[in-house]
Amino acid sequence: MTQKKSSKNQKAPLAPHRSNGKTTGFSGVVSGGAIARNLGAVSAAAGFEGKANLLGRLGAVLLRYGRITQIVLAAIAVLLTYGHTLDVPFYLDDFSNIEENPSIYQWDGTLKSLWGFGKLRTMAYLTLGINYKLHAFQVAGYHVVNIAIHLITGLLVMALVRSLAKSPVLKDRADGTLVFWASTLAGILFLVHPLHIQAVTYIVQRMASLAALFYVGSLVGYVEGRTASTHLKQVLWFSFCALFAAFAFITKQNTATLPVAITLVEIVFFGHSRKKLLLIGLGGVGAIFGVWVVFSFILDYNPFSLEVMEKMTQETSAISRISYFATQTRVLWLYLKHFLWPTQLLMDYQSYPISQDFWEGIVPFALLGHLLLAGVGFFSIERQPMLAFGIFFYYVAHAVESSFIPITDVVFEHRAYLPDVGLCCLAGWALGIGSQKPVGWLRPGWVRGTSIALLVVLGILCFERNQVWRDPVALWQDNANKLPSNRRAWEILGKYLVLAGRYEESLAASGKSAIVTKEENGVTQYTYSHEALLNLIVANIKLKRFDMAKKLVADGLKSGMSPLNRSKLLTNYANIFYQEGNLSEAEKLYKEAIDVFPAGLPPRINLGAIYAGTGRYDEAEQIWKEAAQIDPNNLSVLQNMKLLKEIRSK
């Protein structure tokens, strides 16, 4: 839509009037004197008349070194909120994607092997593979990379706001002061918001944060290319956009909506005639089709096959598309609630109720709410473009994981990481406007003070939530208490209670994870997941209740399971005989566990202990060397090898 410089448009309360003077490096120009007067007025309104000139000079300095200031502030914010998380252990999918993934711990250093394991997530696995090559399974290095990705993404959010402010729709509405405040507040809000913890502190969700980095970076490249002053700059920025888009597409599948996001930016911030809008829309559809063809090619599928389309657009068949979409109409409001009021956050929402259709419970009202919000966005395109962008970007970025593509886990907080970029841009812009001139009864000083206070409170909440993540028992106890119906939370809590030596508590927690059914004869049947069963076995072994532990193992081995899980059961079965002194039976079971899952460490370590304890030092050394090849930094292996060397030297 073409923006006309009518008196109606000039009166829209979108930004303070542009001042003339020294260029600041941000979109628009502003003089140091104007900044000083602005901050001086704010100080006077707040009752600090005597410090007005000092604050004015400080404001001028901050704006003069605007981008350096933003980088420093962002780094400090991230350090304060995430600096204490370097010891957070592996959780949930960290094990299957990193610690138990031979594509990582046996990586040959080539892209080909990673490509064969997870084609559409190659970039994420590449970074995880490099982490392993540098420090194996020591978690600190993984966290350093995750935190760095989060920091860069926050800086790109700031850059996106700055870039959008140079678009034709906003360039006459925003001066340097507004752009500085808006971009800074948007970026810091993104960095310290507690809802984003899962995408940063949960190691494997580097996939979500790295995908967002490339996604937002590509958007920045596009906008900069559209507003570039020379042909060379256009070529460079559009090349940057294309490169980051390519990286995004092989980091995580939710980035497939990037062409739609670029189309959204074009429509909202580069006003066009109806004819051009139609062409832009057709171009967006063509780009989406192009991404579909690329994804199909990568996965070696026929992009024109309906069967392939069905397969590529569902992670599970246990939930119908209608049921999943109906559920997501409620889930999106949950994410929005957590953005506005970030309490009651959870690691896991496994027992979140599934809606079967659009007429169940609050689903019709949830859907109506989304339609109304979309309507607000549509009618805001001309007068409040950032509001329209924030709303529509939120839905576009959620489209892959919160629409008609069924995923087993219907809720995970890391899925809000990328969509929240739009909300942070909107919030930063609104607070930036309010910090520059009175809006109704609001005064700039109040808005700035409230904005800073808000970021401080969010930072404290983020720090405290991360503190909970450092203690697995505290994290899962918190999860189980907040959502008692979540069986997976109780089962994982039972696991960490075992590791903490709290065996009776582990039995109680693991017991709460059981599926309870009543037979026709009135007998109550308790069914446990494999992980819960392992908890019960280990806790009973530690409590010397060997008969109960053997019974649980025997029951577990009757069911079907993965090689890894069978190996774990056999290893624990061997542990029982080892503690009973039946070394021959234990040795037999450890060997069987290794045959079932050759990459397993515990059976090799324990088998080596039997060899060493019975004087078979050569065999002990050999089995521990094999274990060291799997995990060169395993403490038990290193200690055993050192002790064996000392024994043989005597």
TrEMBL record:
Stored PROSITE patterns: TPR
Gene Ontology BP, a term: protein O-linked glycosylation via mannose
The keyword Repeat is assigned to this record: no
Keyword Transcription included in the entry's annotation: no
Keywords, in A-Z order: Membrane, TPR repeat, Transmembrane, Transmembrane helix
Domain of life: Bacteria
Molecular-function GO terms, alphabetical: mannosyltransferase activity
Record-given protein name: Tetratricopeptide repeat protein
Organism: Desulfatirhabdium butyrativorans
